Amino acid sequence: MPLKEDEFRFVELIHNSGKTLLKIINDILDFSKIESGKIELENSDFSIRDIIEHVASTLNPKSVEKAIHLDLTLDENLPSVLHGDASRISQILYNLIGNAIKFTSTGSVVVKVNLAAIINDGAAQVHFSVSDTGIGITEKQQEKLFQPFTQLQNVGTSGEAGTGLGLSICRQILRAMNSEIYVESKKDNGSRFFFTIEFLKFSDKKIGTYPAAKKITSYSRPAETKPIFAENEQPMILVVEDNLTNQVTIQVMLERLGAKVNIASNGAEALDLASKTDFDLIFMDCQMPVMDGFEATSKLRLNRISIPIIAMTANTSKEDQNACKAVGMNGFISKPITIDVLTAELYRLLKPEPSFLSVEALSKLEDAIGPIGKTKVIQAFLISLIEMKESLNLSKSEKNLEMLHKLGHRYKSSAETVGAKGLTYLFKKLEITAQFDSAAEIVSQIQLASTEIELKLKNHMQTKM
């Protein structure tokens, strides 16, 4: 809800203190994993531009508060897509840029990313550097800089707490990537940290024109949260969480976004509620008394309840993610949970654009059956749209709700196969809608969406020829 200026300042102070504490805990846990040799790299395709801008925008409020310019420079020849561990690269940059802001009282922090070389075997070497005009580091301090629990004196840091683990963790992560981190600095004359990572896979498409020095110098207080669901389309969401504080927090955030919320304190209560109410989405805590989230999800799936289930967990390792997938969960969000994360999940799962076409899903289809096979599947789906429209119109004119449910069930999987995410959502909604008037409205939406999807799929096939 809206806060007065002094109230906002105090809440922000509490929030920032909580984030600082969480960072200290995460650093210690991360360092423990690295020390025990359990560091794992999770490689996937990512955009380096997205990573740089996300990290910079996250840290920007602090730079604006200190009146420091945060400059981003990206080589226009950089590949648009690289293949590597995006979260670990983000972690390194967050540490380096955060430190640069922390130890700089006037001037600027400059982040540069350049294409160093393209190797004959198809690898791309990318050079990263973070420079600042801060207090600098003496030669004696540099000797111990990357050792665990080493901290510089808090000159110019506003007394910010830390563990002295950040740079040590950065070095260990980079060494796992067959790289090394270096520093150039002089007392009272700023610092520059830099490293080069070799990516074995990358896109031939270039990142393109990018400002020589894009300055991020503004920050505004977040706008008041507004509902994303109209009153007549409020989804029913079940939150399964044993902690009372978390229950209240998540419920308030979801209700502000326009959802209706039921609460269960453990997995057994969730099973009971899910047997009585048609929920659109379940947020499931993993660790709970009586019955945990993993067992509850397994039983829900055995009971043929197919609605999306999102894990809520403080553990986000690869093993934890795989455990969530193994029992039939559709994703996970990490604690502490923010309203931005909830908003993104609601849009992803319950409110996609009707004409949204997932290129990623089409790529996976092509990987599975080849380009010719993918084209045949798309063509078959386009032909089925003709029959689908006729069947929907007939069932609608006859006010046959049972048949509309069957049509929703019949076509949702084929729409999902070709990446028609918005259309898939509408079919799933049609399958479970209890009122005919609501079903009739969904049919109208499907008719419009299918026309747009048809055009998008035809354009996709043409561009791939």
Q: Classify the beta-strand content into a percent band.
A: 15-25%
Distance between the termini: 52 Å
Percent helix among the residues? 40-55%
Count of DSSP strands = 13
**Biggest sheet, spatial arrangement of strands:** 6-7-5-4-2-8
- H/E element sequence: HEHEEHEEHHEEEEHEHEHEHEHHHHH
Mean model confidence by pLDDT: 85
Instruction: From the alpha carbons, calculate the radius of gyration and give it in angstroms.
Output: 26 Å
> Strand pairing plus helix content: what structural class?
alpha/beta
General shape = globular
Question: Which stretches are poorly predicted, pLDDT < 50 over at least 5 residues?
Answer: 154-159
- Count of DSSP-assigned helices: 14
The largest pleated sheet is described as: 6 strands, mixed
Topology:
Elements: H1 5-35, E1 44-46, H2 48-65, E2 69-74, E3 82-84, H3 86-102, E4 108-118, E5 124-132, H4 139-143, H5 166-176, E6 181-185, E7 191-199, E8 214-216, E9 236-240, H6 244-256, E10 260-264, H7 267-276, E11 281-285, H8 293-302, E12 309-313, H9 318-326, E13 331-334, H10 339-350, H11 359-397, H12 401-417, H13 421-432, H14 436-464
Parallel strand pairs: 2-4, 9-10, 9-11, 11-12, 12-13
Antiparallel strand pairs: 1-3, 2-8, 4-5, 5-7, 6-7
